[in-house]
Specification:
The protein is an alpha/beta fold. It has 16 helices and 13 strands. The chain folds into 2 domains: 366 residues, Alpha-Beta Barrel (TIM Barrel); 60 residues, no CATH class.
Length: 463
């Protein structure tokens, strides 16, 4: 049976995400990101189109590697100005009934005790439709602005992340028993203290002795996304994630990523097929091939090479201002982002990418492919990518967010549905239930469902 194709919308609470020059396009209304109406309109469009979720990226810092300062990022609008993605969740939840809401938060700079409460609150307000994209961060500017000289090393960030997950699992899954909340007006008992437990966590990075402040939300633990591409990141994703993201310019790169994360999941004792994998892509379409190609040519005229190099420099930690545009690039192992250049080099081993070619490629839709054509041509390509790589769906980037997503909903969704490869039918329940076809809680084999706390039977004693 052919694999169903899934869509997420890859967005960011900023005027420019991964097509940094396109805010200059005459049809761009990117400044509307500051208004509630923009996010309501986008969310309702995605829900109508049967998207799994709106996926909100984030960075806690500025791209200041290029020319050793933030001037280029500010001048070209490279993911700055940038607002908080979590603040959008209640707005989107109120405007929709089934769309998932994935939010990015860097655990390196969020204390697990307060963060657990924030996510439980959002899960309550959305009826269990919240997902968390677990990131460790990659910008030194974020570390500096939070009082650190620089961020932790790449692998140590994941060591910290493993303990962080242990803490939030304890808070979400073990602190409050099922049935702890009574709401008994006759006996004047809201919560049974004997069924609420302090987690008594004391580890290398965190000490959290108390209990979770929130009563259990519909999912308890939010649906878990992750996008680590390094070997250490893939192991982390295999252990914790329920869905992961792969970025690569070719099927070969994406397939290697899919195979690696599923093999790592198997090694963790998890069902590898239960781990959803989304590949990044930009779809450029229209009613006809000529219309789609004209739109792509129009978009390409607005690609900003310096803005793209600012983005690439931040991803890799390499200041590309030091290189001529016609220089070839090589994979450089840095703590900032180990996969950005590697994926380009691996996409076509016989090709030497120049700095200019890399900038022009990532300057429109980031590190995924551009899939262009009329509805039938695009559907053919999407099917081919899914069938050849083993991915489950696409994290769809954009050039013009509302326009591109509208065209996907109007043209691509009906064509894929006609082929039996897409399901836009209304679905209810929690995000975990919608995506995995299971109950709202973590699967029994997930490490979060197996976490234990000290003295779990000794609840808070009544006064």
């Amino acid at each position: 049976m052919a694999r169903r194709i899934r869509f997420n919308a890859f967005q960011m609470n900023t005027p420019s995400h991964q097509s940094p020059g396109l805010w200059t396009h005459p049809r761009s209304d990117s400044e509307r990101y500051l208004t509630p109406g923009y996010w309501v309109e986008l969310a309702q469009l995605l829900e109508h189109g049967g998207f799994d979720a709106i996926f909100l990226a984030d960075v806690l810092g500025v791209y200041d590697v290029y020319r050793k300062g933030p001037e280029a990022a500010l001048r070209h609008g490279v993911q700055v100005p940038l607002n908080d993605p979590l603040a959008l969740a209640p707005l989107i939840a109120h405007a929709t009934t089934r769309l998932g809401i994935g939010v990015t938060a860097a655990l390196t700079y969020e204390h697990p005790y307060t963060f657990a409460r924030r996510m439980s609150t959002l899960d309550h307000l959305s009826g269990g439709r919240i997902g968390w994209n677990i990131v460790t961060g990659y910008l030194d500017s974020a570390a500096r602005n939070l009082g650190l000289g620089q961020q932790l090393g790449h692998d140590e960030r994941y060591d910290l992340a493993d303990e962080y997950m242990e803490v939030v699992y304890k808070l979400w899954e073990r602190s409050w028993e099922d049935g702890a909340v009574k709401r008994d007006k006759e006996r004047t008992v809201y919560t049974d203290p004997a069924r609420v437990h302090p987690i008594r966590h004391k580890g290398r990075y965190y000490e959290v002795p108390g209990f979770h402040l929130c009563e259990p939300s519909p999912q308890r633990t939010p649906f878990l996304y992750q996008a680590g591409a390094s070997p250490r990141g893939a192991r982390f994703a295999a252990r914790h994630a329920e869905a992961t993201f792969i970025s690569g310019p070719s099927k070969a790169v994406v397939k290697r990523g899919v195979d690696a994360v599923r093999a790592a999941a198997r090694a963790e004792g998890r069902d590898p097929d239960a781990l959803l994998v989304y590949a990044q892509a930009l779809v450029v379409t229209g009613a006809t091939e000529a219309e789609a190609q004209a739109r792509l040519a129009e978009y390409r005229r607005h690609v900003d090479v310096e803005a793209a190099l600012t983005l690439l420099s931040g991803w890799t930690g390499v200041d590309f201002a030091r290189h001529h545009l016609d220089d070839t690039i090589e994979y450089i192992d840095t703590d900032a982002g180990r996969s950005a250049l590697a994926s380009l080099s691996a996409a076509d081993p016989g090709r030497d990418w120049t700095v200019r070619e890399a900038a022009e490629f990532i300057g429109l839709g980031g590190r995924g492919p551009i899939i262009v054509g009329d509805p039938r041509q695009v559907a053919d390509q999407l099917e081919s990518w899914i069938d050849d790589t083993g991915a489950d769906g696409f994290n769809l980037a954009f050039a013009l967010p509302l326009e591109d997503m509208t065209l996907v909903v109007e043209h691509i969704v009906p064509e894929l549905a006609r082929r039996g490869r897409y399901d836009a039918a209304p679905r209810g329940g929690t995000l975990r239930g919608q995506l995995l076809g299971q109950g709202p809680r973590l699967a029994p084999g997930h490490p979060g469902s197996r976490v234990e706390i000290a003295s779990p039977l000794s609840g808070i004693q009544a006064a």
